[in-house]
Amino acid sequence: MTALTLSTSSAAALRADAVVVGVAKGAKGPVVAAGAEAVDKAFGGKLADVLETLGATGADGEVTKLPAASGLKAPVVLAVGLGDVPAKDDGYDAETLRRAAGAASRALSGSKKGAFALPIEDVASAAAVAEGALLGAYTYDKSNGNGNGGAKDGKSAKSAKNAANADKKNNGPLAEVALVGGKPRDKAYKAAVERATALVEEINRARDLINTPSNLLNPADFAAEAVAAAKEHGLKTEVLDEKALKKGGYGGILGVGQGSDAPPRLVRIAYTHPKAEKTLALVGKGITYDSGGISLKPAGHNETMKCDMSGAAAVFATVVAAARLGLRVNLTGWLALAENMPSGSATRPGDVLSMYGGKTVEVLNTDAEGRLVLADAITRAGEEKPDAIVDVATLTGAMVLALGNRTFGIMTNDEAFRTSLHEIAEEAGEPSWPMPLPTHLRKGIDSPVADLANMGERMGGGLVAGIFLKEFVADGITWGHLDIAGPAFNESGPFGYTPKGGTGSAVRTLVRLAERAADGDLG
């Protein structure tokens, strides 16, 4: 993890591999942003002109490197675009600062230290720069994945270690971020940095899990990760294996997992605070690999399906983050873990499953499996009578078609809660959009042989999935559903603070929700 420090030194005097400054897009060319005054002075007040000569415009996320002028301790100046110059007295919003800091961190990959002289006007802007810089510095350690890290014999293991070290040397994350303009002795600034560090470390935990190849992370492996983290952070865990699931009647989770040689798990991981007044339950879809089952996905649609456990990763990371931050809330995470594979023992289209709690479901499509494991977990979570349940899942391709690759959908059984979740997500910097649960779509999941079917009308498929899940929410419990199918896994190039691969989508939203609950506000 990249180290993060607050510095009162001038940007010109700080020793680093590079000093990062902000540049905005002005009406007549690039404009050097606040925080870079000392750097601009070293260039004789002509830094904007030099950048313009090099082709910089100040566009959002644009990165321009140039040799430092005499008088600067850092040998390189990295100018990162902030987009349009804000209206007078408005300043730069938090998300703009996050994205800029993240782009700068990515550009400094492999460096030892970056001095970030971006516009830091208060604690909120310092927190945004800190978050963005740490999020952007993330790299996946391939030595723990499908590279040489799995070598068993001594010679191969040594070669693997050397290869991994070489990879880290050349492509590892920026080692240290120094925030110029921070106030290391100010309690509020220190708290902001500590929060950013804990939050991003847990987001990166989720990213690592999502990026791990499925042959190295089956349901039992994921459960073991949760148990290990629980021991480290004083959390309580309960793991239901296939025998316990069968005894308990968890037909949804068992039905999805029965085609795989790697049996399913249901993990309960709980954080409690002695002064908590609110209790939240978070439920995560954890399909460690989704082939589609008997309703097999076609080629081109299954290569990235290791990411189908992103919801469970987000829930897991959120519970640990809440514990590290000491939030005054009771938070229980439910990780519904299974591998969806075709085989002679797999659930077939047309089969009927008896779910936890007694409802029966006709499985019309085995590739609509996420809602089956979530249904069991939502029912179980409701038995503990939390103030609210929020489930998180890479649930439907329909949501991606509706909202694109960077925005998740929000559905709830309470309009005020839906509005609150949307506000929280936007505040946290995660694009989202409130979606309806039209009553006329409910009839489409009626079944002649079961209480309901796992598929309904094709149009509005993301909404149909939400309507299905709503059937398993106990009366009187506020419930929300986040469909993160679009933003959970970035298949294109990195941008801002978002890496290629697993993104850790929804963690920031869920942590902010937990913080609000700790303050007694659930919307």
Properties at a glance:
alpha/beta; 8-stranded mixed sheet; 7-stranded mixed sheet; 15 helices; 20 strands; 21% strand; elongated
Mind explaining what this structure looks like?
- This protein is an alpha/beta fold and 523 residues long.
- It has helices spanning 37-42, 47-53, 94-107, 123-136, 154-171, 187-211, 219-233, 242-248, 251-257, 310-325, 370-382, 397-403, 415-428, 461-470, 507-518; strands at residues 3-7, 18-26, 29-32, 63-67, 76-84, 113-117, 176-180, 236-240, 265-271, 279-290, 330-340, 352-354, 360-362, 388-393, 408-412, 432-434, 452-453, 478-483, 489-490, 501-502.
- Strands 8-9-11-10-14-18-15-16 form an 8-stranded mixed beta sheet, with helices on both faces.
- The longest helix is centred in the middle third of the chain and has 25 residues, at 187-211.
- The model is unreliable at 146-170 (pLDDT under 50).
